[in-house]
Amino acid sequence: MPNQVLTIDPQNELKFKVDFSGLFEQGFTTHMRLTNPSSDTVLFKIKTTAPKKYCVRPNSGVLEPNSKVDIAITPQPVYLDPNEKHKHKFMVQSVIAPEGRTNIDQVWKEISPDQLMDYKLKCVFETPRVSNLNDSGDNAAQNEVTKKRAPATEDSKVPKTFTVFKHDNLENDLQKATSEVLLLREEESKLRHENLQLKEELLRLHQKVGEGRVRRHSYTPDKNAQATMIPWIAIAIGMAFLGIVIGKFLM
Predict the structure, then answer these.
(1) Which of 59, 65, 97, 145 could connect to 41 by a Cys-Cys bridge, CB 3.0–4.6 Å?
(2) 189 close to 197: Cβ distance less than 8 angstroms
(3) What's the whole-model pTM score?
């Protein structure tokens, strides 16, 4: 395989921007420049391992001697799978055009693999903090160490006045809670006292009702006594009537 005749810029990697969720940044385009410093006409093609996630314009063409072309590579609005980030690569494939051949498609079909010149570039993905996702393993380990050290560092920077203020707040909260408990106990005692008073009042009412019933029965004459008094009342009425009649005759 012959050496690549084209000069490629950048030489090793293509950078793309993604957000923290792994979504490609919209509107961001990476550029690659191909330069033909030779005296031959060169045909080129741009290939990628993830063709559905990138738009390449132009993806093929012809470079005349001492000419150049800019390639625009725009990511599609899709998410970057962390498991695939190391698999995204681009390849610049070129071949010297045969003399007198104008049908480019036919040249690519008939060219032998030994005549092809390949050049590969890897993809690098940057977050808004310009952290390389390809080094996410090292960054994750470093972040984990930072998290473990952070509590001790923060505690050492806390002023003593803040600690005292925190203890004072706890004491105030405890005092408020104690006061609330005492108030609740007083309310409970009052409720119990009122409950006893209600029970005593209810008992008094029951007693008064019982006494009223007894007194009413004690003043009511017995039925037998009423039966014995009826004849005497009748005799008295009769004698009174008789006395009135005799009085009228004597007069």
Answers:
(1) 97
(2) no
(3) 0.50
Q: Are 13 and 121 in contact (CB under 8 A)?
A: yes
CA separation for the pair 189, 181 (Å, rounded): 12
Q: Encoding tokens for residue 207?
A: 């007693």
6: left (phi over 0), alpha (psi -120 to 50) or beta: beta
Q: Residue 156: is its pLDDT beyond 70?
A: no
If you write DSSP's letter for every residue of the chain in order, what string do you get? -PPP-SEEESSSEEEEEB-TTSBBPTT--EEEEEEE-SSS-EEEEEEES-GGGEEEESSEEEE-TTEEEEEEEEE-S-BPPTTTTTT-EEEEEEEEPPTT---HHHHHHH--GGG-EEEEEEEEEE-TT--BGGGHHHHHHHHHHHHHHHHHHHHHHS-HHHHHHHHHHHHHHHHHHHHHHHHHHHHHHHHHHHHHHHHHHHHHHHHHHHHHHHHHHHHSPPHHHHHHHHHHHHHHHHHHHHHHHHHHHH-
CA distance 56 to 46: 8
| pLDDT (tens digit per residue) in 108-130 | 998 888 889 999 999 999 987 64
